[in-house]
Write the structure tokens for this entry.
Amino acid sequence: MSAPQQVPDVLPDEELAALDAHWRAANYLSVGQIYLMANPLLTEPLRPEHVKPRLLGHWGTSPGLNLVHTHLNRVIRARDLDALCIWGPGHGGPAVLANSWLEGTYTETYPDITRDAAGMARLFKQFSFPGGVPSHVAPETPGSIHEGGELGYSLSHAYGAAFDHPDLVVACVIGDGEAETGPLAASWHSNKFLDPVHDGAVLPILHLNGYKIANPTVLARLPEDELDALLRGYGHDPIHVTGDEPAAVHRAMARAMDTALDRIAALQRAAREDGATERPRWPVIVLRTPKGWTGPAEVDGRPVEGTWRAHQVPMAAVRDNPEHLRQLEDWLRSYRPGELFDEHGAPRPEVLACVPSGPRRLGATPYANGGLLLRELPLPPLEKYAVAVDKPGAGTHEPTRVLGDVLREVMAATADRRDFRLVGPDETASNRLQAVYAASGKAWQAGTLPVDEDLDPHGRVMEILSEHTCQGWLEGYLLTGRHGLFSCYEAFVHIVDSMVNQHIKWLRVTRRLPWRAPIASLNYLLTSHVWRQDHNGFSHQDPGFVDHILNKSPEAVRVYFPPDANTLLSVADHALRSRDYVNVIVAGKQPCFDWLTMEQARRHCARGAGVWDWAGTEDGTREPDVVLACAGDVPTQEILAAAQLLRRHLPELAVRVVNVVDIARLLPSGEHPHGMSDFEYDGLFTPGKPVIFAYHGYPWLIHRLAYRRHGHQHLHVRGYKEIGTTTTPFDMVVGNDMDRYRLVMDVIDRVPGLAVRAAAVRQRMEDARLRHHDHIREYGVDLPEVADWSWDG
């Protein structure tokens, strides 16, 4: 950012006229997109056939967004700023598309939408039209990183974009409807985590136009002193712009922008050059303009401008109602398009006077196409951190603690380039990842006490007890060209179900846009999982996030269940190297048996599913009598314990053990890129033999994934059945019928002929379950044969 300029009291008349021309042009283009499919320059009287048959879009917020875009252009050009804008207010697509077309980036991205009358006609017709573009700010929109359809996340996205981009100013327009959401309310606290030395700046612009779809908004109805108190309580200094007279608002907005950017420059200079350590109070602009500003004042005798009626389409019967058609033409001509566009439909020079050039344009900034800025993550060789495995099950490790050592090295290796962050809701140490603190502390700009540990104003470990804010930060960080990992308790990652939906949709669309460069994947580590909630109990037991994820676009989602420390390292290494995915890794933090060497783990994870021949009893001369399958660390242990019991009590039985790491492998190859062909599936699971499958989550997911497979009628799945409580680890699996004894009973019940021959063995297994029930209620711990169990295969 160049040196601060003196804040003008009054804009020069020539500059005011140019800003107003740009704003009017953007407003004209916004209205045209909602209504017109022909006659874009009104070169002939408007007729019904010029109007779209289905009127879709949102006018109410567009004039305010156009005002912000116009004035951002002015300061970017005047100050030579690197800038990005997050457009929060819902379906503000017409405004952002209009400005992208005016500045030329839309034509550069889509050459058929030329900056002339023919291109304007295409711009208008494609909006909310079959085969066209959405009504909100979508991935197709140049300069966007934020899907405008679902509200609540604009400010957290803005901060995520600003982290570790010290030269970037991120403007964030927050609609007053969005400001009522819980995620947005929490994200105001992001300023306590923004490092003025290493991070960029966020300039929130709270746009109060007074109404949502059909109701007033809370913040717009607060007295100004109460709103100021709220914003100051959040740690911001408000700057107000209020009005409905364009020239006065332009002058006030220019003054507000200059004041805000001068303050930002001064705060950054104090921290970077003078060593100031006090938490900055960053500016926020409060912009109050009428909803639907400059649109029809009344329609059919009812007020529209400045009311909720301006939210979407102010006049919906234009094709059928001559008075509406007349009003629409008057409205469009009120912007004086002849002054704004030449005879060919190109914007006149005065309209473009405020527009920056090249990558300084908001639609062309590389920060909004983060894959262009992305560098490979410096990941260490896994052998350096792999646990030694002389034979399966000989030792135990806490898998996430082992991963924490790898993440510490990644954090250290990115100390200078600052393009990796670990986020989570106050659970980094709880999830055994605290080794990262040796390389980077926890980001923190608020007050500290002597008892605090690992807080660091320059830290890159992000912890706030808001899953929404963590998710928003990381999405903004990834979308602007960096890497990260989200660590969360398994049960509570559901809080961001809706957010990850939107991110997956974003990724699916961008895969079809050749101009969007791939970004680093959104990686989840879910731990403190359903089977080891010994004291938290039922409230912390929900493994259903993977069900939710696997409903989404197959090309974009991956779900992994590494059964031990080395497989976790292999899966995490793959996820952190990947692009354009959402990777969900479910792994325990409690001591877990080590099953595979690092080389074995790599091969097994590359296959995604495979036979553990050392665990079974088949000899290769005939088909197995039964397949014991597992996915997840605790299910793997129970399956192996069951295999050991079968080896001991039914040694003549041919048992195959299959472990699944990549759960999408169960899908047919035509349904998911990682899916198996029927030939592969039949070879692994056999088409005519019973398969007893112990699964980490809800058992019906496995049935859903495999329902089209041969032999599905022989598939029997055990998993979490929503039976939870505060109890011992083994009692959790007993309560959900996934314990080793129940699995042996399942084998006896399903292998033909065993029910009679092995009745005594089955009774012994049932007796063990009964002994377990009595033992834990007397002693409070699991049976010694369970607590002290080890693999002796």
